[in-house]
């Protein structure tokens, strides 16, 4: 059973739906060449069931004035608009002889006027049904008197659209009445109590399950024994197999206008969707993944393989894949299989979970459409008895890449929605978006292609773009669901990461017009929240002293510790002439100098940092610290005058004084060691260029840090070291230079 949550529901396609693998082959099973009638050979079937004439019935439409969604009244469902579909079923879990059906079908969208889109055509969520009411779009259970029990004409809810290909996908709704139609002279009401009705099916959630209880058939002619409730729905007689059928396909299939039966796969254009039902057995039908829009596009003059995945219906399933023929489903009046298509394993296509087909499109003309209907048949363990089968009907279109030369491109804007479109800006390909745990992130994606042509009069047809997504994190959604087709083709990604999703997630969007694949990658970075970060000191006095800066305000919605590490400091002023440098980064901490240029409007430091949590996530942020002007101003001059937009780096080493004083001996005195606010400044001088090392030790002789270890020029120097992490006590500063070692002590309070 499937229920649609609202009128705007769009069916999700399996991520494995329709795999198209183009294979370059050195050899082919059809000789290469150009349009050659001989390679379209077709063998007429020995027999087929001719199409009957369905008589219309008079049935008043329901009251649609108060429905919560758009209903399209159309008389065109039987007028050249079928594109493909499938019928699936499963046993009811309670009633032994009840079978629950679902019907998916694709139609030509432009045949249904009065939709909710701005062009007057259907949108996902619209409901379509025909008028005048006929049983042309009823479903026949092949049960009851004369095997003619059937539903009334069915309503369909639109689940997806492809404007470029003028196609829409639909699912049949549970009937709202038991009133049946007349077929081939039978009684007008053949299922008064055998299938469930949904009197409120025009109220969400929409019910897309058709439930029928098989009753059997009695008083059969020619001495045929009566059929019980478990005997119908599975005979080798086309007139006794459950099916939906109507008038014509959306256009003549094959090469348009050709009168040669070898070049037309469905010149008469009729169609039929059927299935093999075995009530009372517990079996169920295979459930195929229809390609988007029931349309597969293949490159001309190429060899390609494509598959039709199915959901395994029963444990230990054995499948037989085959084309339809006149004895079971389509017949000569329905589908002629193109002779340039075969099963990938033509000797024994049995028992593969997915039906893999191989096509040699050498010489097949551009933009020609070909009908194909295949059967997925479920066999017993002995591969003898049929337990169920399902027909899958779709269209193949050929694309000549020499004619269609444009490459799809991902657009800078995206138009989303149907009926009331909105325009949004997608992220650039290769960009990174950041999001906090438990907060939703949404963004659009859109691709388009300029190829298009007036293939059929009045029906301009653009390139159909097939878009898919990979690398989707768990819980992410796409609206409409992908894969899908259109041109332009768009979707909106939304995701709310959880506490286990910390780190980077790369989502790749792939678009293909059959000839030119393109991709776009977007990285989503998940971590804590840095947006409310702030420094412990918002302003500093202009006193040439260093101040340790602590950062707080980073929050982790998932709890746990967060480690903050300073990664850089910039300033809107160059390094001042007082203490130097203006910012000292030691490990993950930083100290800033309280100084500015004389007469400036204040100095603005921007401290950059990274916060890392215990879940594998991180975030980047900045805090601002000001050195106030004399009138207490603090104006950021970045990007003004000669100041770079990114400011100046406040952390580089200080330059050498232009006129250094050359002392006669190396000196390190206590008067040159200053401790202020956790920052120690050591002043020293060198009589000549040479190597210098200054380190600090505790009273036990353990090295607590190295201040200097490099070759320096002669003259006066100073170095600063963040001693805020030292506990209270006596420490020794040891200097080695010019072949001498000097030691001085200092007391840290």
Descriptive overview:
This protein is mainly beta and 749 residues long. Strands 4, 5, 6, 7, 8, 9, 10, 13, 14, 15, 17, 20, 23 and 24 form a 14-stranded mixed β-sheet that branches. The chain has a 5-stranded mixed β-sheet with strand order 28-37-36-32-34, with no helix packed on it. The radius of gyration is 38 Å and the shape is elongated. The relative contact order is 0.09. The model is unreliable at 1-69, 180-192, 454-460 and 656-671 (pLDDT under 50).
Summary, kept brief:
By secondary structure, this protein is mainly beta.
Primary descriptors:
749 residues; mainly beta; Immunoglobulin-like; 4 domains; 54 strands; 0% helix; elongated; disordered N terminus
Q: Helical stretch count?
A: 0
Sum up the overall morphology in one term: elongated
Radius of gyration: 38 Å
User: Which regions are unreliable across 5 or more consecutive residues at pLDDT < 50?
Assistant: 1-69, 180-192, 454-460, 656-671
Number of strands: 54
Kindly state the mean pLDDT as a whole number? 75
Count of domains: 4
- Amino-to-carboxy terminus distance: 77 Å
Beta-strand share of residues: 35-45%
Counting helices, strands and paired strands, the structural category is mainly beta
Helix content: under 10%
Topology at a glance:
Blueprint: E1 3-4, E2 19-22, E3 54-55, E4 71-74, E5 82-91, E6 98-108, E7 127-130, E8 139-140, E9 156-162, E10 167-172, E11 182-183, E12 206-207, E13 210-213, E14 243-248, E15 270-276, E16 287-288, E17 295-299, E18 303-308, E19 310-311, E20 318-323, E21 341-343, E22 355-360, E23 369-379, E24 386-399, E25 409-410, E26 414-416, E27 422-424, E28 432-436, E29 441-448, E30 452-456, E31 459-462, E32 465-470, E33 477-479, E34 484-486, E35 489-495, E36 503-512, E37 517-527, E38 534-535, E39 539-540, E40 546-549, E41 551-552, E42 562-571, E43 583-586, E44 589-593, E45 603-613, E46 618-627, E47 648-649, E48 673-676, E49 679-686, E50 690-698, E51 703-712, E52 715-722, E53 729-737, E54 740-748
Parallel strand pairs: 4-7, 17-24, 28-37, 39-46
Antiparallel strand pairs: 1-12, 2-18, 3-11, 5-6, 5-24, 6-10, 6-13, 7-9, 8-14, 9-10, 14-15, 15-24, 16-19, 18-22, 20-23, 21-22, 23-24, 25-29, 26-27, 29-35, 30-31, 32-34, 32-36, 33-35, 36-37, 38-41, 40-44, 42-45, 42-47, 43-44, 45-46, 48-49, 49-52, 50-51, 50-53, 53-54
């Amino acid at each position: 059973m499937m229920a649609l949550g609202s009128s705007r529901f769009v069916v999700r396609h399996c991520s494995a739906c329709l795999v198209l693998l183009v294979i370059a082959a050195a050899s082919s099973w059809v000789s290469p060449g150009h349009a050659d009638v001989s390679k379209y050979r077709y063998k007429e079937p020995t027999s087929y069931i001719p199409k009957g004439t369905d008589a219309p019935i008079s049935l008043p439409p329901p009251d649609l004035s108060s429905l919560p969604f758009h209903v399209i009244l159309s008389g065109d469902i039987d007028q050249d608009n079928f594109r493909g579909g499938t019928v699936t079923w499963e046993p009811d879990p309670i009633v032994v002889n009840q079978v629950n059906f679902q019907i998916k079908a694709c139609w030509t969208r432009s045949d249904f006027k009065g939709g909710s889109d701005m062009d007057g055509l259907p949108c996902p969520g619209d409901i379509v049904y025909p008028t005048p009411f006929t049983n042309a779009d009823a479903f026949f259970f092949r049960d009851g008197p004369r095997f003619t029990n059937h539903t009334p004409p069915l309503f369909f809810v639109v689940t997806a659209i492809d404007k470029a290909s003028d196609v829409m996908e639909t699912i049949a709704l549970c009937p709202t009445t038991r009133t049946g139609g007349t077929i081939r002279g039978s009684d007008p009401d053949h299922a008064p109590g055998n299938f469930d009705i949904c009197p409120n099916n025009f109220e969400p959630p929409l019910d897309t399950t058709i439930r029928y209880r098989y009753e059997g058939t009695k008083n059969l002619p020619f001495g045929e024994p009566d059929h019980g409730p478990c005997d119908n729905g599975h005979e080798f007689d086309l007139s006794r197999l459950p099916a939906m059928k109507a008038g014509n396909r959306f256009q003549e299939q094959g090469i348009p206008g050709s009168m040669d039966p070898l070049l037309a796969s469905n010149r008469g254009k009729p169609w039929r969707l059927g299935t093999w039902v075995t009530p009372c057995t517990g079996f169920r039908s295979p459930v195929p993944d229809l390609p988007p829009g029931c349309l597969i596009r293949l490159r001309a003059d190429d060899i390609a393989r494509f598959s039709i995945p199915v959901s395994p219906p029963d444990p230990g399933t054995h499948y037989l894949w085959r084309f339809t023929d006149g004895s079971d489903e389509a017949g000569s009046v329905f589908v002629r299989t193109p002779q340039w298509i075969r099963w990938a394993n033509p000797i024994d296509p049995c028992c593969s979970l997915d039906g893999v087909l191989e096509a040699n499109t050498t010489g097949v003309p551009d933009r020609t459409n070909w009908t194909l209907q295949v059967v997925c048949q479920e066999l017993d363990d002995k591969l003898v008895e049929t337990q169920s089968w399902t027909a899958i009907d779709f269209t193949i279109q050929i694309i000549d890449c020499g004619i269609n030369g444009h490459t799809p491109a991902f657009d800078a804007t995206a138009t989303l929605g149907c009926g009331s479109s909105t325009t949004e800006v997608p992220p650039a390909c290769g960009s990174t978006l950041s999001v906090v745990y438990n907060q939703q992130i949404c963004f659009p994606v859109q691709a388009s292609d300029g190829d298009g042509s007036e293939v059929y009069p009045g029906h301009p047809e653009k390139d159909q773009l097939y878009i898919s997504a990979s690398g989707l994190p768990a819980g992410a959604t796409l609206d409409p669901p992908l894969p899908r087709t259109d041109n332009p083709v768009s979707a909106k990604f939304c995701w709310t990461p959880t506490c286990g999703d910390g780190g980077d997630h790369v989502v790749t969007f792939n678009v293909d017009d059959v000839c030119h694949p393109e991709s776009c990658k977007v990285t989503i970075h998940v971590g804590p929240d840095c947006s409310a970060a702030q420094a412990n000191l918002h302003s500093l006095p202009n006193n040439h002293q260093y101040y340790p800066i602590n950062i707080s305000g980073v929050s982790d919605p998932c709890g746990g510790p967060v480690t903050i590490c300073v990664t850089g400091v910039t300033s809107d002023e160059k390094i001042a002439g007082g203490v130097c440098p203006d910012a000292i980064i030691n490990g993950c901490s930083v100290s800033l100098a309280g100084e500015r240029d004389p007469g400036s409007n204040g100095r603005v430091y921007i401290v950059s940092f990274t916060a890392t949590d215990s879940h594998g996530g991180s975030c980047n942020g900045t805090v601002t610290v000001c050195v106030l002007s004399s009138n207490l101003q603090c104006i950021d001059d970045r990007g003004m005058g000669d100041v770079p937009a990114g400011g100046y780096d406040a952390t580089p080493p200080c330059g050498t004084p232009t006129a250094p004083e050359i002392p006669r001996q190396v000196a390190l005195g206590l008067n040159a060691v200053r401790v202020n606010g956790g920052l120690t400044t050591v002043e020293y001088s060198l009589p000549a260029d040479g190597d210098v090392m200054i380190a600090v030790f505790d009273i036990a002789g353990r090295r607590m840090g190295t201040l200097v270890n490099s070759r320096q020029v002669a003259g006066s120097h100073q170095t600063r070291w963040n001693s805020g992490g030292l506990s209270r006590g006596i420490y020794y500063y040891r200097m080695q230079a010019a072949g001498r070692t000097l030691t001085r002590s200092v007391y840290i309070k």
